[in-house]
Design a protein that fits this description.
Radius of gyration: 17 Å
Number of domains: 1
Number of strands: 13
Distance between the termini: 13 Å
CATH topology: Creatine Amidinohydrolase
Largest sheet: 6 strands, antiparallel
Strand content: 25-35%
CATH superfamily: Creatinase/methionine aminopeptidase superfamily
Shape: globular
Helix content: 25-40%
Length: 248
């Protein structure tokens, strides 16, 4: 999983480098398929019944499961790329959100970018904090509690109906990792050595409620049209420390 995760993280960076103004989501999807094949893997998401794409690509208020389309990226779009790979029989899963920028910006665009940058910076920092408490002896609730507090303290809201999850021989395994503490902490699953988890920070500038926004049966967006973001890494819990598997 560490080898596959390293390869997957590298693919994600390549896709973001290719995601420029004027590029279609369909082009990013084709590139994802190509790079996963070159890495010696197969797309994890195609193991989900009915899903035929290697990536989930979400724009602005779309939060998860965005189907690659002919939509062309515009200056100021906020793009989430969520991607998974099966490598030597094991899945890893990662997602990140970035702003698509042209080379030149006027003052208005720079102000808008500042608001978006702060929003995204909070998610990145929250993921780092969540991984920091994902250690043997703690509980899943420690992760959920940190995510909820960090996001709400910044003035945003988590998406309560979506979760992180275990990952390994299957893309989605137990335990589920809610974005908020939904029961007494000690009643949530205990973190033990050998666990591999996909920790996800899923949140919105607005209230965090979501709905199916298209006729494709997959794309979920914020109900209030507010900006959303996802930051996700696959980790492994060991006796002494936690390893980020989808990293450089």
């Amino acid at each position: 999983m560490q080898e596959g995760g390293h390869k997957l993280w590298s693919i994600l960076q390549t896709l973001f480098a290719e995601a420029r103004v004027g590029v279609s989501l369909h082009t990013i999807e084709k590139s994802a398929c190509l790079h996963i094949e070159k890495a010696g893997g197969t797309p994890s998401f195609m193991t989900v019944k009915g899903y035929r794409w290697a990536a989930c690509l979400c724009i602005n208020d779309e939060v998860v499961h965005g189907i690659p389309s002919e939509y062309v990226l515009k200056n100021g779009d906020v793009l989430t790329i969520d991607i998974g790979m099966v490598y030597k029989g094991f899945h890893t899963d990662t997602a990140w959100t970035k702003i698509i920028r042209s080379k030149t910006k006027d003052d208005g665009e720079m102000m808008a970018d500042d608001t978006k940058e702060r929003f995204l910076a909070v998610g990145q920092e929250t993921l780092k904090k969540a991984i920091g408490v994902a250690i043997a002896g703690n509980h899943v609730g420690n992760i959920s509690q940190v995510i909820e507090k960090s996001i709400t303290d910044a003035g945003y809201n988590v998406v309560r109906s979506l979760t992180g999850h275990g990952v390994g021989k299957q893309l989605h395994e137990e335990p589920m990792i809610p974005e908020y503490l939904d029961k007494p902490l000690e009643k949530t699953p205990l973190l033990t050595p050998g666990m591999t988890l996909a920790i996800e920070v899923i949140y919105a500038m607005g209230k965090g409620a979501i709905e199916y926004s298209k006729d494709d049966g997959w794309t979920l967006s914020s109900k209030d049209g507010s900006l959303t973001a996802v930051f996700e890494q696959t980790i492994a819990v060991d006796e002494e420390k936690t390893f980020v598997l989808t990293g450089s």
